[in-house]
Amino acid sequence: MLSLRYFGDPxxxxxxxxxxxxxxxxxxxxxxxxxxxxxxxxxxxxAPQVGLSIRLFISRIDKETNEGEIIPGxxxxxxxxxxxxxxxxxxxxxxxxxSIPGIREEVWRPEEITVEALDINGEPFKKRFSGLQARCIMxxxxxxxxxxxxxxxxxxARTRIEQPLRAIKKKYK
Length: 173
Ligand SMILES: [Zn+2]
Known about the structure:
Bound molecules: zinc ion
Structural class: alpha+beta
Number of strands: 9
Largest sheet: 5 strands, antiparallel
C-alpha cells in the first residue's frame, strides 16, 4: 500500500518525471492512489504525495443532490498533463492538501483551465475544466512541479501558518 508523504518530505519539492509508457503498472498505481484518496477523503491526489516522482494525478469530486444524496463522481486520471489557456477571470477559495493536514488558506486561481493529458489507457485527450474541478487540477498539477498551495498564499497567511507548518514537519519526520 502506498503511504502519504507530508510537508517536509523532499519528494514534494521535486519536479516529477514524465511517464514513458502507460501500462499495467501505471494502472496499478492509479488503483492504489484511488484507494488512498478515498481513505483520506480527498478530491485529488498527485503521485509525489505517495512517494512517486512521476507526472500523474487523479481526481474524484462527488456531487450532492438537493436531497443530500451523494453521487460518486467519475475518477479522472491525468498522465503527463499540460495545462494551458487559463481564464483571465480568477476565483478565490480556501484550499487544503492531504500532505499538509489541518491547514486551509485562500488561494486565487483561474476559474477555467484546459488540460491535455493521457488517460488511464494511454490515450491522449484535451478538455476544458471549470470551478472546483479546475482548481483541483491546478493544485494537483502544482505537485508535479514541486509546488504547494502554501506557495500561493499571502505573506500574511504564510506567516500565520509558519508554526503549524513546522509542527507538521516535526511530526512526520
Ligand atoms: Zn495537495
